[in-house]
Write a structure and sequence with these properties.
Elements (H helix, E strand, L loop, with lengths): L1 H5 L37 H12 L4 H11 L8 H13 L3 E3 L9 E3 L1 H9 L1 H21 L2 H19 L5 H20 L1
Antiparallel strand pairs: 1-2
Helix pairs in contact: 2-4, 2-5, 2-6, 3-4
Length: 188
């Protein structure tokens, strides 16, 4: 543990304090840690945007906000991803500008866009389910009291590990208690 801290690591073992990203349990690096992967693969964001626009005409910021809502705040696509995708959908004839809200350009789905959605209905349902799953996981894991308790544990550990007089036996006791707590939580 100390070795990891001296060499730039956090000292809490693989993955401690790191989010699983959007790969979740499905993607891991060679050490078993979760790796961050893109929320959407090629073309998937396009389908999600089409579906959201099919529900009601929307502008870019509204699409960003809606995806963020679906994921419980865990993911919000950047304008640098949304607006080029909207331009592509418009160029493909799958959406068209509708009545505007001031300076914001609203987009509505076209017949071509609806045909694309219909042809990919199963994938679109999967993508929306993925967003909902991220939102559910965010809600389960983003509890204020859990974050407070984890922060408290981290602060106590950092304080104890900085103690230059910490002996090897005490270090092993700390590790054993953390492992014991993890096992108890896992059995709940």
């Amino acid at each position: 543990m100390r070795h990891g801290m001296r060499h730039g690591g956090r000292g809490f073992g693989p993955g401690f304090g790191r989010g699983r990203g959007f790969g979740g349990r499905h993607g891991h690096d060679d050490e078993g840690r979760g790796r961050r992967r893109r929320m959407f693969d090629s073309g998937e964001l396009r389908l999600v945007l089409l579906r959201l626009i099919a529900d009601e005409p929307r502008h870019g910021y509204d699409l960003i906000r809606r995806i963020e809502e679906l994921t419980g705040g865990a993911y919000a696509p950047s304008p640098g991803v949304i607006y080029p995708t909207l331009t592509l959908l418009d160029d493909m004839g799958q959406i068209a500008a509708a009545d505007s809200e001031g300076a914001k350009k609203l987009f509505a789905i076209t017949a071509e866009g609806q045909a694309e959605l219909d042809a990919n209905a199963a994938l679109v349902d999967e993508l929306l389910a993925r967003l909902a799953e991220v939102g559910d996981e965010q809600q389960r894991t983003d509890s204020v009291s859990v974050r407070r308790a984890m922060g408290n544990l981290r602060a106590v550990l950092m304080n104890r590990l900085r103690d230059r007089e910490l002996d090897e036996a005490t270090l092993h006791e700390i590790v054993a208690r953390i492992d014991e707590a993890a096992q108890k939580i896992e059995r709940l």
